[in-house]
Amino acid sequence: MKDHQLDKPRCHCAIFGIYGNQAAAQLTYYGLLAQQHRGQEGSGIVTSEFDKAQNRWRFHAHRDFGLVDDVYRDRSILTEELRGNASIGHNRYSTAGAADNKANIQPFSVLYKGGNLAIAHNGNLTNFRKIRKKLQDAGTIFQTTSDTEILLHLVARSTKTDQLEQIRDALAQVEGAFSLVILTDDKLIAARDPSGFRPLAIGKKDGTFIVASETVAFDIIDAEYVRDVRPGEMVVFDAQSLSSGQPASMRISPEPPAQPHHCIFEFIYFSRPDSQIFGHSVDKVRRKLGKTLADTHPVTPKNPDDKVIVINVPDSSNTATMGYVQQTNKKGGKAKLEIGLIRSHYIGRTFIAPRQEVRQNKVKIKFNIVKGVLKDRVVVIVDDSIVRGTTSKQLVQLIRQGQPKEVHFRVTAPPIMHPCHYGMDFPTQDELIAHQCNGDIEAVGRELGVDSIGYLTIDELLASAPRENGEHYCTACFSGKYPVAIDTRQSKDEHEA
Which of 11, 13, 420, 437 is catalytic? Predict the structure, then answer.
């Protein structure tokens, strides 16, 4: 049974690319290691090398299930097998594609009329079923159940003669969320969908160009963050880029880009707090979310003399909890930040849970309480989100064992009412606790067993997010308003995912 981050929304993937460095595979390994939180089902690296003896380009690949450090435990893979000065890598959660199919582990690579081609994708293509059926009807044979594979076939079937134009032609046909790194024989290409749903950043190290989902991948290798790949942009890194210090840039579509819609959940939960996402500090945004939550949903004890402690749910709500405490005390409250939950960091992603009663106690496998901190206190739990509510309910029950006087729950996101189709893995709508309660917040609180509950509203969330550069955000999982059309038809692939 998979833990799935204890009933949290999952971000599907992390991507990394580097061009112009003889240690490309090793640096890609470190970049993927820093982004392990974005995908834990499998990892893969593809490198490009010019074979002087045979006077041709060669791709080398290694992919497997597991965490990054397990997949490349044999370090000779990075130094002897994955040769070349350009590389792309991928950490995976399954999107559209079976999680237990090794063929679905990216990067995908092919040899076609234009040469070698490899691709790694973060996001979800919303029209891939329509395109896949059209390609299958035309005789295309698919090797995977992933939506990403259609991009390789679209490139190979393009009528354009220039390889960059073939890639641009393929990208112009797909819809939805995509942040991509593409490796050709002699180029690294980064591309982002017109809505800019998923992050993608450009960095440099000693003249080497780097691309990654999050800037923490630059920090681990002492690279410098330069800028983001712009929504609807395709950036090309090649030998000319190394000599000039500037990559080529082009728009995917000749049409003016639509209004971007960045995924707000990158700030709420997905990204590491030490990253810059969409050009902004994640830590700073999360602290702001906590402060707004304190302003809009303060906790007043029934007995004014009772002590109020605020605890986080490790680790994603850490900084928001600090913001909540800081703002509460700034307004004259007497809240104290305490460590009431201890998380074990040595539990693997999966564990044996053959009986229902064991599965229901999965929270105890990852968390334990500090009873002396909780006893006779008014406890405020700050968390980033509630999805099914099963984990939150178990956490409340666990904290109740510490004999607090009151237990209150505060959430830095609005109620999740709808599934995501742009690269997050949410349960079906009927499994979402907020939907089950018809959006009745108090009903959610009763289900969790807390004295009170408070969520940020969509307006409060957006007011706390960076807007100085006119940013717009996707809030579809809260509002049901999808900025890009989605194909909701059932298919065999969807059931496999």
Answer: 13
Q: Is 13 a catalytic residue?
A: yes
pLDDT digits (tens, 9 = 90+) for 189-238: 999 999 999 999 999 999 999 999 999 999 999 999 999 999 999 999 99
What is the pTM assigned to this prediction? Answer: 0.91
> Rounded to whole angstroms, what are the CA distances from 232 to 15, 215, 235, 256, 290?
18, 20, 10, 9, 32
Which residues share a beta bridge with 123?
A: 178
**Residue 335 is encoded by which pair of tokens?**
């809240």
391-447: per-residue pLDDT in tens? 899 999 999 999 999 999 999 999 999 988 898 777 688 889 999 999 999 999 999
Burial class of residue 299, CB neighbours in 10 A (0-12, 13-18, 19+): buried
Residue keyed to tokens 């957006």: 462
* 217 contacts 183 by C-beta, under 8 angstroms: no
Bridge partners of 263?
474
Q: Identify which of 153, 199, 205, 144 has the alpha carbon closest to the alpha carbon of residue 174.
A: 153
pLDDT more than 70, % of the chain: 91
Is the separation of the CB atoms in 292 and 321 below 8 Å?
no
In this structure, the chain runs to a length of 497
Q: Could you tell me the domains of the chain? A: 4-277 (3.60.20.10), 286-465 (3.40.50.2020)
The total of other beta-carbon atoms located within 10 Å of residue 489's CB is 8
Distance CA 463, CA 292 (A): 9
Phi-psi label, residue 316: left if phi above 0, alpha if psi -120 to 50, beta otherwise: alpha
Q: Which residues pair with 180 in a beta bridge?
A: 121, 191
Closest CA to 104 of 158, 156, 64, 53: 64
Q: Which are the contacts of 256, defined by CB distance < 8 A and separation ≥ 6?
A: none
